[in-house]
Specification:
Blueprint: H1 2-15, E1 29-34, H2 39-51, E2 61-66, H3 67-72, H4 75-79, E3 83-87, H5 95-103, E4 108-110, H6 118-121, E5 132-136, E6 138-139, H7 150-153, E7 158-159, H8 162-174, E8 179-183, E9 191-193, E10 199-201, H9 202-209, E11 217-221, H10 230-238, E12 245-247, H11 255-260, H12 267-280, E13 285-292, H13 299-312, E14 316-321, H14 339-362, E15 368-376, E16 382-386, E17 392-396, E18 405-413, E19 417-422
Parallel strand pairs: 1-2, 2-3, 3-4, 5-8, 8-11, 12-13, 13-14, 17-19
Antiparallel strand pairs: 6-7, 9-10, 15-16, 15-18, 16-17, 18-19
The protein binds 5'-deoxyadenosine and iron/sulfur cluster.
Length: about 425
């Protein structure tokens, strides 16, 4: 979502007559779009601000956007006086006017959370020079997992309007986009009325987008197990353009830890969802997120996480050491886990997840499948695209270009990517 937000901010500044540069030394304005999810991500902004100072002691106009801006607000300008603008993720439609304020030598800070207003104000998207695009449909979170800052930084769950989403998708496809990934912190909590006034969930929206000629692939991320409706599960079996890939974080395999995390699902209910999803779409790739070292996590709790990974069998997954976030309930829980224990657990978990990823990749060897070419590879003539299961596939791209959908036979499989031969 930060990529999407960054693109939208860039487009707004383009519309103001600014021109993007890849060299920070050439920039009059630098926008740092920041993440607060873990401490490491949040700290990065301060070292980045320091690095923007030029050899003559001057610095460009600096705007800090995103979740660190939301969480720390004016505190940022105390810690980093060279910052001119602080703008939260729900207020970035005001960035151009805030930069005008900064140009007059005044600081501009806006961490308001007006519900759903930025989407009504943002200019419509220009043509995207690429075959794949993100599209935010839902933002915010009401789940309040006890470790997580998102409900505080992104605010309450809101769904964008059906018509606005369909229009944005059509405009993307008109510009040449073939694959859209629908985004939301709780994307499967999306709900709204369709153009006939009927209540719809994410599955209804996906079925509507599936009708757009030229939109060949639909994905969505990230989902919460509790919002995995039967309708959405059925869509995986029925909507051909909905890719066979589901990112469904579980975080832990231990029920006491899941309860302490306020996840409101159990290990068993999570596995039961996966079973239904796999019944609907055999061979679907399942991905997840994990946190090791949540306060109070015993050896036995961690073994339960290893066990759920064995049972779920992931194609790919993300795993993190627990990072205490200021203001969240877990940050002040007793029994914080020592760093060495977290390190050791993360290593073991990642070894298992890597093995599953390699096995999943190896199982695609010999398959004939379609690849959407997204970028050039490192070797001359090489092109790289994604399989339906979100694996990177390298091909020798003679006569093809980025944006082509090609049929390939998978001829080799490594831990992180595959090679295909054009059919
Ligand atoms: N510490 C570590 N990982 C976290 N995540 C969210 N909050 C924290 C935290 N405080 C992870 C979760 C989530 C992913 C986006 O980031 O696994 O699904
Ligand atoms: Fe954070 Fe996701 Fe839990 Fe919401 S559901 S609080 S975004 S981890």
């Amino acid at each position: 979502m930060n990529v999407y937000d960054g693109e939208r901010m860039g487009e707004m500044l383009d519309a103001e007559g600014m021109v993007a540069t890849s060299n920070p030394d050439d920039a009059d304005v630098v926008v740092l779009n920041t993440c607060h999810i873990r401490e490491k991500a949040a700290e990065k902004v301060y070292s980045d601000i320091g690095r923007l100072r030029r050899s003559d002691g001057s610095s460009p106009t600096i705007a800090v956007a995103g979740c660190v801006a939301q969480a720390e607000g004016a505190e940022i300008t105390r810690r980093a006086p060279s910052v001119d603008v602080v703008v939260g993720p729900q207020a970035y439609h005001r960035l151009p006017s805030m930069l005008e304020t900064a140009a007059k030598g005044e600081r501009a800070i806006d961490t308001d959370m007006p519900p759903n207003s930025k989407f009504g104000v943002l200019p419509s998207r220009p043509k995207q020079p690429r075959p794949t695009a993100f599209l935010t449909v839902q933002e915010g979170c009401d789940k309040f997992c006890t470790y997580c800052v998102v409900p505080y930084t992104r605010g309450a769950e809101i769904s964008r309007k059906w018509g606005a989403i369909v229009d944005e998708a059509k405009a993307l496809v008109d510009g040449g986009v073939k694959e859209i990934t629908l985004l939301g912190q709780n994307v499967n909590a999306w709900m709204g009325e369709d153009d006939k006034g009927r209540e719809q969930g994410l599955d209804g929206l996906i079925r509507e987008l599936d009708k757009i000629a030229g939109l060949e692939r639909i994905r969505y991320t990230t989902s919460h197990p509790n919002d995995m409706t039967q309708g959405l599960i059925d869509a995986h079996g029925e909507v051909e353009s909905l890719m066979p890939y589901l990112h469904l974080p579980v975080q832990s395999g231990s029920n006491p830890i899941l309860q302490a995390m306020n996840r409101s699902h159990s290990a068993e209910s999570y596995l039961a969802i996966l079973e239904k999803v796999r019944d609907a779409r055999p061979g679907i790739a399942i991905s997840g997120d994990f946190i090791v070292g949540f306060p109070g996590e015993s050896d036995e709790d961690f073994e339960a996480t290893m066990a759920i990974v064995e049972a779920a069998n992931y194609s790919q997954a993300f795993s993190f050491k627990y990072s205490p976030r200021p203001g969240t309930p877990a940050a002040t829980m007793e029994q914080q886990i020592p760093r060495e224990v977290m390190d050791e657990r993360l290593q073991r978990l990642q070894a298992l997840l890597n093995r599953q990823q390699s096995d999943f990749n190896a199982a695609t060897l010999g398959k004939r499948t379609q690849i959407l070419l997204e970028r050039k590879g490192k070797k001359p003539g090489q092109l790289v695209g994604k399989s339906p299961w979100l694996q990177s596939v390298h091909i020798d791209g003679a006569n093809h270009e980025i944006g082509d959908m090609v049929t390939v036979d998978i001829i080799s499989a490594g831990p992180n990517s595959l090679s295909g031969a054009l059919v």
